Amino acid sequence: MNSYSFRPIHFIILFLSLIFLAAPHVLGSPDPNKPCYGKKIKGMQCIPEGFFIRGSNTHDADEAPEQKIYLSDFFIDIYEVTNEDFSKCIEEGSCKDCLYNGTCDYIGPAYGDLYLKPKQPVLGVSWYTAKEYCEWVGKRLPTEAEWEKAARGPKGNLFPWGNKPANCKLAVIEEDERKGCVYKKINPPNLMPTAPVGSRPAGVYGLFDMAGNSWEWVQDWYSENYKVCGEACNGKDPKGPCEGEDNCPGFDKKTLKGGSWWWPSSYARGSKRRAHVPQNYPEYHHFGFRCAKDAG
């Protein structure tokens, strides 16, 4: 007969070992067995599953309440969609924009040729056209929660690089009355171009221009704050009212994130939210986008 027998200390060791093995999932750390790991998609970055801090209690009222949200892993574009990318969809006839005036052809931004270089972010698109493009390439628009985690990281940084305010070395914004960080005067005044995507340092997850350059459409309908939004904005993998579908009774505006070359540092915060009608009228604003994709 084996003289070895379990003692109380052995049960304690076994119990602690089980907790240790389970901790990565419980605490929201990356799980290497998830489909995202070991899988790569060209031009996209994997954002690992886990908790992140969404919103803010100390900035704009619509960013409250700040709370921890759990997301499954997902992929998101490393760069904003460019004019070059978008033109291919136009040429194939897969991207058409039904404008407020009844026509259905993409006309580009209202600001002229300064913004139409191949590597600049595409501007002047509606939410519907952004969604159309993402579906054309086999992707989708990111949810607001996905976008915010990708911009801020798991610890709730104010900006993609940390908590230091945005400046022209870190983001394409308005600084010292210089729209887009451009020094020289252009006629008309203050009409300065966006920068080619990737012109500033990458953020916490290796993504570019998550602060500044162009506002980016996300999937969610806009609600006045997360408390009012309720369950649709909470829990695991929240998608907002009506899960971001094309129509949502009681909601008439979609959400944009990231700020742009036209706005100062405070608009480039990761938790900052902007609301606008999905048709992007009465004039075509400087709205662009990037796409996301499920990891599974």
Short characterization:
The chain is an alpha+beta fold. It has helices at 8-26, 83-91, 127-136, 144-152, 226-229, and strands at 44-47, 50-54, 67-71, 74-77, 215-221, 254-257, 274-276, 287-288, 292-294. It has a single domain, classed as paralog of FGE (formylglycine-generating enzyme) (Alpha-Beta Complex), CATH 3.90.1580.
Task: Reconstruct the topology from this structure.
Layout: H1 8-26, E1 44-47, E2 50-54, E3 67-71, E4 74-77, H2 83-91, H3 127-136, H4 144-152, E5 215-221, H5 226-229, E6 254-257, E7 274-276, E8 287-288, E9 292-294
Parallel strand pairs: 5-8
Antiparallel strand pairs: 1-4, 2-3, 4-9, 5-6, 6-7
Question: What can you tell me about this protein's structure?
Answer:
With 296 residues, this protein is of the alpha+beta class. The protein has a single domain (31-294), classed as paralog of FGE (formylglycine-generating enzyme), CATH 3.90.1580.10. The protein contains five helices and nine strands. The protein has helices at 8-26, 83-91, 127-136, 144-152, 226-229, and strands spanning 44-47, 50-54, 67-71, 74-77, 215-221, 254-257, 274-276, 287-288, 292-294. The strands form three sheets. A four-stranded mixed beta sheet has the order 7-6-5-8. The protein has a three-stranded antiparallel beta sheet with strand order 1-4-9, covered by helices on one side. A two-stranded antiparallel sheet has the order 2-3. The longest helix is centred in the first third of the chain and has 19 residues, at 8-26. The chain is globular and about 45 Å long.
